[in-house]
Fold:
Amino acid sequence: MTADLLARSGPLQSWTDRFAALPDTVQVVATPHVAMADLRVDPAGPAAADVAGFLGVDLPTAPSTYVETDSVRVIWLGPDEWLVTSPFRAPRALEAGLRDAVAGRGAVVDVSGQRTTLGLAGANARDVLSGGCAIDLHPAVFRRGAAAQTLLGLTGVVLVALDDTATSYEILVRSSFAPYLASWLLDAATEHTPT
Amino acid sequence: MNALRLPAGGRIDRSTTYEFTFNGQRLTGHPGDTLASALLAHGIHRTGTSIKLGRPRGIAAAWAEDPNGLIQIEEPFPEPMLLATTVELTDGLTARGIPGQGRLADVPDSARYDARHSHADLLVIGAGPTGLCAALTAARAGARVVLVDEQSEAGGYLLGSTDRIDGGPALDWVAAATAELAGFADVLHLQRTTAFGHFDDGFVLALERRTDHLGTPTHVLGGETAPPHKSRQRVWRIRARHVLVAAGAHERPVVFSDNDRPGIMLAGGARTYLHRYGVLAGRDVVVFTTNDSAYAAAVDLADAGARVHAVVDARAATPAAWVQKCVRRGIPVRAGRLVTGTEGVERITAVAVAGERIPCDLLLVSGGWNPAVHLFSQAGGTLRYDGGLGAFVPGEERDGVSVAGGAAGVAELGGCLADGRRAAEGALGGLGFVPVDSPSPVAEAHVDGQPSLVLWRVADGDQRTQFVDLQRDATVADIACAIGAGMRTVEHVKRYTTIGTAHDQGKTSGVLASGIAAELLGRPVGELGTTTFRPPYTPVAFAALAGRDRGSLFDPERTTAVHAWHVARGAVWEDVGQWKRPRYYPLPGEDMEAAVLRECAAVRGGVGILDGSTLGKIDVQGPDAAEFLNRLYTNMIATLKVGSVRYGVMCGADGMVIDDGTVLRLAGDRFLVYTTTGGAAAVLEWMEEWLQTEWPDLRVYLTSVTEQWATFPVVGPRSRDVIGTVFPDVDVSNAAFPFMTWRDTVLGSNRSGHDASTPRSARGGRPAPDQDVPVRLARVSFSGELAYEVNVDSWYARAVWERLVAAGERHGITPYGTETMHVLRAEKAYPIVGQDTDGTVTPHDLGMSWAVSKKKPFFVGKRSFHRADNQRADRKQLVALLPVDRNLFLPEGSQVIEGPSVPEPPIPMLGHVTSSYRSAALERTFALALVKAGRTRIGETVHVPVAGALVPVEVAEPVVFDPEGARRDG
Structure:
């Protein structure tokens, strides 16, 4: 019954055209509706092993790293905290699966709506980020497999390196800050947009 | 006409002529000029007058050490207090000299300013011979290098000299070095970039001037122009594992009577004007020196055609080789003599040397060289007085910082080249890099000479015209006065005299002031020391520091998932922390008062809807979650049943209210905690602090879900109808869904709709299966009305909001904002933490003793309630104030006094108004106030000064509407 169906929306729904107008060297794309779950378990305990079984990959224990499979990415957020993301799983299914694996030996919270995802790619992607992010983004240091909780401009983000050449990143930002960050990125791109 | 521009030489582009205006005069210059060099080419030394005494002052140096030469730029954009010596000439530049102070632009600055973070193994500050050698050494070893230099091109002091390296002009070596550096991917080489602050752990701030030298699009004579999309200035925030200060040295003048006239200049400055800009700073020259270095200026200027009438060397023993060069050029050398005074008003006309009068139009002075230790000192490096140099040099090794070349007191070129390499190799060793073998550059052997004489001042004459800090018009007499007043340290002398506090931060005057103060006190200079160097090394515009964080990017604006709807509905905003919240939704012709009265009446008479998504939300789970919350809230949380909601108050350890909100028990081991909008982050931090530092044994996990859940209170007697329509699966009756309970339900979702216009996952692939959208309904009320709080996953927030509004249409559903919310809650005396409280208010003061458990053995704040001060009968308590005049509005913040007349001060203050509104329900104004012993005053009349008159108000029970709570269940 169509009347009973609900449409989804995202905080950057109206930004598509502005992102599309950016130069090739600074490409921004909003990737809404990625399922995300906050996971808290003892990384040395049996729950971590069961979670690894469910996810198909061991939880990363090196600070500021992530691992991924074909369907999920697991981002280290703290010694006993991870953010599990997946564009392919439904939020409730992801949460429920993790909750079953954890089985009361930790915590799982659906945070799919808490953050939204932006893709940032292009030859000037690192320049744009280094305009407002204090961490070392040199590809020898921050490359595929690295994910940092840091500040970008005046908002907290989880910054994920997708390649080894500092030209492709994902930025996870609190949904309420997403329009600010989008404005900030557009403004940053001005430097790379000859008039 | 550039009368003093030589026909050839210098690093200017003579093929292009710029026009500029200075002090109303139209003049010309060339690319590569500074404003100062272009003025000197016209024979113009004087730039303005001094700040206190109005004495004519002129260009006294060739770079940032100039204590005079402050100018105001008018075109292309007004900018105050720049130095003629550091402003690169551009076509159309319009400037004027200023006595100390300029004016800011009265139009907005349209230029862009930005920042970059950068990381390096080695940061080299200064691209002179020392810095270039160091950077090359590090780059060849494979290190990540950042090299910054404040000039328009690399070379440092070599730009103003005739030195030779490896058998050729030194600048050829500079060009080869910079070309090699450009070939390294991990070398960042920035010219026109001043390192102005050096902080702990290798953190350095530098300002890059990126576009000014390119000119503006309206003033271009070929070549590139300043591109409007590029930032004009950029602040570099550099974090380096090792910082090498290779900032060179500043020439130090000697103080003598009337040492401030235009035409008196540092000797090295004149040499720079000659070699770098092809400008003779004067035709009739006298050189006054205490060391060998100024002889080069005398010789070079004579070779360029100036008449050098004398080298006055304060030393009895003169350097034979240099004297010989002078003799060959017919330059008399007066050994063991001093300059005791000068003549001339607008420009120097003569020098007095031991009774002899020597006419001249340029007096060059050199009292030695001060190593530029500013950046070393800023980061905490201590300095040591070097009696041979008459200057302060780095006094200790510091981890991660080294100083080399002129900045370390190394005097000649060969030594600087070697020192740069040595310093870099030392740093690289500590960083795990192995320097590669490569030939060291070889400098031409320098001329052997005589040791320098340390001479701060020539005592003859009137101390009141012996200027130490020319910009501040501070003299030897002022230092004597400071000492006479009892100042015994150089820091006190500095503050008493203001020496060293101007734009140049004492680059020429600081060491002189130490030396002269030491002399007058009869103490060694080294014992007296120097003042502390602080950032910035040179002035930095606030616009550059602000960068892109201005306008709408000044502070993030947080928006809810329904923001666009509020915009479309014409909401007027209230800023709550960083959140944009609708304050009210005016209909055509409505002001705030009218809109709020309408919204209030609609809620109490029908149904309204509020976007409460900004409320902080924290998921608390784990086996000890109940115990944890029990310890943080004043009331009992552990007894809360699954499916129920409780209002809770949180206090600090001092027993004062810090936050409040509702707590939902989702499961035996799981709660959802609501905080105030403004308190969300602080409450989460507060919880984590207790959990991590005091109660690490508790098995509890905290997760912020503020944006996960959108929250929409649907409020008013008709809210049940709306909720019942939208959620037909839910039994919304009081019996099945009583007050302070919650129920979960679902709504069907649709993955098409809005989604079609938004990109799918960047990685594509199979979409997640459709499923029902969970919705959580809670019977809580912040208005006293029947109300249902609708909580939904924020992906579906907009759709659910629209559905609620659509379903409410036939019940007249009215969206309302924070102002109406405030009125409705105030009518029920529900406090707003931070408005009705200020960190000194207990739950008891708010009349909420009921929310403070008497059974719990412990909760944060409990002990403080037993303090005598918390027991006082005259504590300020929350009450309502009802103005006798029912239309009279009490401004929030108004004081409450006894009245009816104002007694003599001090007037006993009873308290103040915390909230004040017009009530649609009561058809009158009312206020909440914190009043001393307020509860015992209920029924009394007190007074509030409003607009110059005392108005009577009745103290009332805080709940002014529906005190029985009859409306809660509809």
